[in-house]
Design a protein that fits this description.
Chain lengths: 95, 269
């Protein structure tokens, strides 16, 4: 099994690139006018998970971005998905 | 390096992709029925599509020495109209005698609606009635967790279902454990941006082990890579997985699952 050093040697530059790309994405949003929406808040809320002391950060991020309601909905207003769950949005399940 | 591509939508790919698959060592490609990129306007559209899956694609693949198999269903995106869905489903039995049809798929959920769930359950019953394996699509992005839970709960109601003949595809870190713990097969899809990356799929393999796990490209209309599976194999090698471990994941595991259909016939192992 590779060591931490082996994984760092293999993937540090790619991870560094992804981190800078994410930072640049936030910078880019700041430079552009108008309001953001729930998707930005969802990303911000998920960020602390990256620094949490847990072995399943990827799982945590996915769960943070997911719909946790339990009942099927009556009708969908769209076919596609957007990447984050809006708690009081159009897709909420009917009680 | 030989491998099996267990989930690729070749109707959306050019013939060049078959050539690339062959060059990379692909021996067989399996194609579930899916969305056309738009909602088909009639059941006749699905009839033609099923003909394309069972007649034309096997011929196109054979030009490059690749065996092509397929799964049939009405996909979740077009399953929200139950009347229309049932009309399409009534076409399926006539195609089950085709020599390259493996089972029912890719059924599942899209937006987790009641109608989608009802049609999903009717597909599972159809598979049971004909003793066929099942390939299941889990929803995209924020809908995946809820959809996977609904699917697992629905499947649990089918007491005669052989869970070893069911693969739940497009798992990610937050759904894979529930699928494997319930006794089903789990598929990891190597799809840019919206599903697993190559390294995350390898992470899942390392954490959960190789039992009942496969990976696929699910290449389709979107930006996707039909060579994702052999590329992941190269990444497994870079991460010091043995040749035997790689062969198991990209060849033997899919072969073991798919061979549960008597129609899935390749050369000698």
């Amino acid at each position: 099994m590779p060591s931490k050093q082996d994984i760092l040697d293999l993937q540090f530059i790619a991870a560094r690139h992804q981190l800078i790309d994410l930072a640049a994405f936030f910078d880019r949003l700041d430079r552009h006018p108008g309001p953001a929406d729930f998707r930005l808040e969802a990303l911000r809320a998920a960020l602390p998970i990256l620094l949490a002391d847990r072995p399943d950060r990827a799982c945590g991020v996915l769960e943070a971005l997911s719909d946790h309601t339990t009942e099927p909905i009556a009708q969908a207003s769209m076919q596609g998905a957007c990447g984050a769950w809006e708690k009081n949005g159009k897709q909420k399940a009917e009680s | 390096m030989r491998y099996i591509e267990p989930h690729a939508h070749m109707v959306s790919r050019t013939t060049d992709d078959y050539q690339q698959l062959a060059l990379a060592g692909c021996e067989a490609v399996c194609e579930p029925a899916f969305w056309a990129g738009f909602d088909r306007s009639s059941a006749a559209g699905f009839h033609d599509y099923f003909r394309q899956l069972t007649e034309y694609e096997p011929q196109r693949a054979a030009r490059f020495g690749i065996k092509h198999f397929c799964w049939l269903c009405i996909n979740p995106k077009e399953a929200d109209d139950p009347g229309f869905a049932r009309e399409v489903m009534s076409l399926i039995p006539q195609f089950l005698a085709c020599p390259t049809v493996l089972g029912i798929g890719e059924i599942g959920l899209n937006k987790n609606t009641r109608n989608e769930l009802a049609i999903f359950e009717e597909h599972v019953q159809l598979a049971l009635d004909h003793d066929l394996p099942v390939l299941i699509h889990t929803p995209h992005l924020e809908d995946k967790l809820k959809g996977t839970r609904l699917i697992l709960a629905a499947l649990a109601n089918f007491s005669r279902l052989d869970r070893a003949k069911v693969i739940i595809d497009h798992v990610e870190e937050h759904t894979v454990a529930a699928v494997l713990d319930a006794g089903y097969w789990a598929g990891m899809t190597l799809y840019p941006h919206s599903k697993c990356s190559l390294d995350r799929a390898i992470d899942i393999l390392e954490i959960h082990g190789p039992e009942r796990l496969w990976m696929n490209s699910a290449c389709d209309w979107g930006v996707s890579d039909p060579l994702a599976v052999p590329k992941c194999a190269l990444q497994m090698k870079a991460r010091r997985h043995s040749a035997a471990a790689i062969e198991r994941l990209i060849y033997q595991n899919p072969r073991d699952f798919l061979s549960q259909s008597p129609r899935f016939v390749l050369g000698a192992q």
